[in-house]
Amino acid sequence: MNSDYYISSFCSIKNNTISLNGSKVYSDENIEFSEFIKAAYKSLNTNYPKFFKMDALSKLAFLAADVLLKNENLNSEEENDIAIVFSNKASSLDTDRKHQKSIDNEEDYFPSPAVFVYTLPNICIGEISIKYKLFSENSFFIFENFNAQHLLDYSSSLLATGKTDKVLCGWVELDGDQYDAYLYLVTKTGTTTHNKKNIIKFYNT
């Protein structure tokens, strides 16, 4: 398998800070996640009104992807051949809890459909795909911990078999007040080699 693929850019959101390629683009240390992510959306001029209806996991993934893909100067009016490979530990557990609570609070068993629609972790992929017209392969994997080797192998396979031109990869974890997003874009040309060492290095940046 061809290993000559490259990381063109990466974005992380953690500790109330958003970074692009290692440089801080937004930070607010004194507010909880729900307020932080809304404030970041407004500050970064994100244009996607449905954002405010998303669950917390989708907001986290969407904003990280939006920061990264805007930096790539993609044309959101045309279809982009970019696959998505995401992973996390908690799946959609944060939203699952809210869904169960809405069931428990309804005497006639009529849970909130607005919450129910987000009870799968891969729904966040759909939101990103709609905004940037990404209609290639997509997958969401659940691991106990961040799995750089799997991201490397799976994305390289997609590129090597010609299923896509680029791959948006990463880890998007949210459980209660704990969250951690790290996304990066793999391309066929560039200067930073897509290997396990660099994936982990940028994750820890």
Helix run count: 7
| Biggest sheet features | 7 strands, mixed
**Beta strand %:** 15-25%
Shape: globular
Q: Order of strands in the sheet with the most strands?
A: 3-2-1-7-6-4-5
CATH class: Alpha Beta
Low-confidence region ranges: none
Terminal-residue CA separation: 28 Å
Structural class: alpha/beta
Architecture, CATH level 2? Answer: 3-Layer(aba) Sandwich
For the record, the count of structural domains works out to 1
* Oligomeric state as shown: single chain
**Helix and strand succession?**
EEEHHEHHHEHEEH
CATH topology: Peroxisomal Thiolase, Chain A, domain 1
Q: What would you give as the CATH superfamily? A: Thiolase/Chalcone synthase
What does this structure look like?
GO terms for molecular function: acyltransferase activity. It comes from Winogradskyella eximia. This is 3-oxoacyl-ACP synthase. The protein is of the alpha/beta class and 205 residues long. The chain has a single domain, classed as Peroxisomal Thiolase, Chain A, domain 1. Helix content is 36%, strand content 24%. It has a seven-stranded mixed β-sheet with strand order 3-2-1-7-6-4-5, sandwiched between helices. The chain is globular, with a radius of gyration of 17 Å. It starts with 5 loop residues before the first strand and ends with a helix. The model has no long low-confidence stretch (mean pLDDT 87).
